[in-house]
Amino acid sequence: MKLLALIFTLIISEIIMSQNFDFEQHLYQSYERYKEKTLTHRKFKHSDIIPLIEKLKHQNEYTVTKVGESVEHRDLNLISIGKGKTKIFLWSQMHGDESTATAALFDIFNFLSDPSNKQFCNELLSKVTLYFLPMVNPDGAERFKRRNAYDIDLNRDASKLQTPEAKILKNVFDDLKAEFGFNLHDQSHRYSVGQSFRTAALSFLAPAFNYEKDVNNIRERAIQVIGNMYQALSLFIPGHIAKYSDDYEPRAFGDNFQKWGTSTILIESGGWNDDPEKQFLRKLNFIAILSAIKTIADESYKETSKDVYESIPFNDKYIFDVILRNVQIENGKENIKVDIGINLDEIGDLDGKKFYFKSQVADLGDLSIFYSFKDIDLDGYKIQRAKTYSDKIFKLDELNHIDLYDIYKSGCTNIIVDKLPDGKFFDLPINLTNSNKIDTTINIEEPANFVLKKDGKIEYIVVNGFVLKVEKNRKFEGNGLVIR
After folding, report:
1. Helices marked H in 79-233
2. Segment 295-321, tens digit of pLDDT
3. Eight-class DSSP state of 17
4. To 10 degrees, what angle do helices 22-34 and 279-297 make?
């Protein structure tokens, strides 16, 4: 299997080298010129994009139309540009916490509005008309959560249309009858490209329109466009592109739009090392979408073999957030070496204003076939259960001034406070409790809190999954848990 994958990678490399991707190279090199500077992180809200949409209203080439309101009465706006015969419909952020492509759409507006691109864009927009519906789920975006204000997954509401946002999306689709559609999402950063150590930075899919996963002319066009995007993006992230699961989902918009006659393409933004705000992945979206629009406009996608799409590996799950390798565990008189896989899930508060991480020991044993974003070889280190600091009961108002180093070097990840704060998380990497009877056994699916020693000395401490080197005057980053 690995040999076949290597052979195919070499073949694709030869294909890419033989083709002209000057346009995509230009986009990659000049991206900072078009990047929308007011959107600097993932957790922007509806109020952040409204001024940008208002600016578009004052540009003659754009038409902005309010097409409805969300549950909480936030406007959904359809933005169009172009006079071409072929209609392309792009919608983003059906899930409120999947904002990467939304930011990229505003980068694309900047590209299309740049006077230096006038000749290119005039020719492009004489062949296609573009329709954008950014941030379909603004109420979810307000809290940076997946579902809408009714707590319904919009992408499972294509059939019953119980939510106003789903009705709006379906109405726009029905009015446009676009030839091509782009369904823009984010996926877990822990997906790998097949059974490899490579993160799936982007995943593509031409959704199935039935359980048999048949391919008709409509789906075939989507397959060919994806093949072209795959070849173009492989210039920049070779080996980091996967294919999303093609199981038919009768409640999903992409699957139904494909069935109803629009060649639909799913783009999922995944994970990239040292890119927590997904700004590099945003850049890749910018390139992928403009590349796809160009290949549709000049119909060059028709020359792309369906075999390219078929050869793209599916997403798999071979990635952890952290792996601690070769850690020695004492079990009675026996010592064994294990790898420990830790995941950190991002959780927001009720208002979506602050975000914290909750850790979990995801696996333990031989993890040699897995990859992680943070990979540490701890050969020679012993792992021990952490303790609760019992020398003092702390007051809440003094917690921001505590010396974590002294607590860590005593092997403690927990401190006792006189009164537990509201909520489940604490801003510093120490766990708060009102009991000294906390179970710190190292178990699967439990928070990762333990001590790592070398030659009898505490070198590292793991607090809620954050691996911290125990050194004086070091700034310790992360957040703890409130244990009730």
Report:
1. 100-113, 118-125, 138-143, 164-176, 217-233
2. 999 999 999 999 999 999 999 999 999
3. H
4. 130
Cα separation, 95 vs 143, whole angstroms: 11
Alpha helices in 378-444 (DSSP H): 404-409
Which among 192, 249, 133 has a CA at the least distance from the CA of 371? 192
- The pair phi, psi for residue 293, each rounded to 5°, is -60, -40
Picking from 446, 29, 98, the residue whose alpha carbon sits closest to that of residue 266 is 98
Does this model's pTM top 0.70? My answer is: yes
SS (H, E, C) 240-306: CEEECCCCCCCCCHHHHHHHCCCEEEEEEECCCCCCCCCHHHHHHHHHHHHHHHHHHHCCHHHHCCH
Work out the angle at residue 311's Cα, subtended by the Cα atoms of residues 307 and 315, and round it to the nearest 5 degrees.
145
Round the CA-based radius of gyration of the chain to a whole number and report it.
25
The angle formed by the CA atoms of residues 26, 29 and 193, to the nearest 5 degrees, is 95
Q: pLDDT digits over 8-32, tens only?
A: 544 554 454 446 799 999 999 999 9
Task: Evaluate whether 127 touches 84 at the Cβ level (below 8 Å).
Answer: yes
- Decide: helix, strand or coil at residue 234: coil
Which residue is associated with the tokens 């397959």? Answer: 223
Angstrom distance (rounded) from CA 124 to CA 190: 37
